[in-house]
Amino acid sequence: MKFADRKGEAKLVDGSDESEIGEGYLPTSWSPDGKVLILNNFGAGDIGSLQMGTTGTPERLINSPFQEWAAAFSPDGHWLAYASDEQGQFDAYVAPYAPTGETLQVSTAGGEAPLWSQGSNELFYRNGRLWMAASYPTSPTLSFEVPRVLFEGDYLNIFGVAFKGY
Fold first, then answer.
1. Closest to 25 measured CA to CA, from 91, 69, 81
2. Rounded to an integer, what distance in angstroms lies between the CA atom of residue 61 and that of residue 25?
3. N or C: which end of the chain has fewer CB within 10 A?
4. How many domains is the chain partitioned into structurally?
């Protein structure tokens, strides 16, 4: 990590040194402006944020009795996509950044590792061997069309984002 103003020395922030970003937190997404780092606390199952240029513990953004993970900023920085087991299985959700308590379930039958497309109005996610996409209009409010299967195939289940949206 290096601050956007390019001052100071570059420092690797990979979650291996918990003193860098708070105990139990691992980074998952940068805000488009590079000022906010989204973090997952896998021990607590919560999602937090860390403002660049500050010290201290991350602010909890999504804190519930459920497991939330794999948070990703939307291209405009106004929304977070994440997975939650709120309904008993993991599904893809979207919530405003900054949190209002409002959430929108995107997946209809399970979903993990949501990721925003950088080149179209789509949210991608995985449901087992199915790779899904849900399109969304940009106005007047955020809503998602019924998700569709892009393709079916095996995947390597690794920590972090296993694919990149374009």
1. 69
2. 13
3. C
4. 1
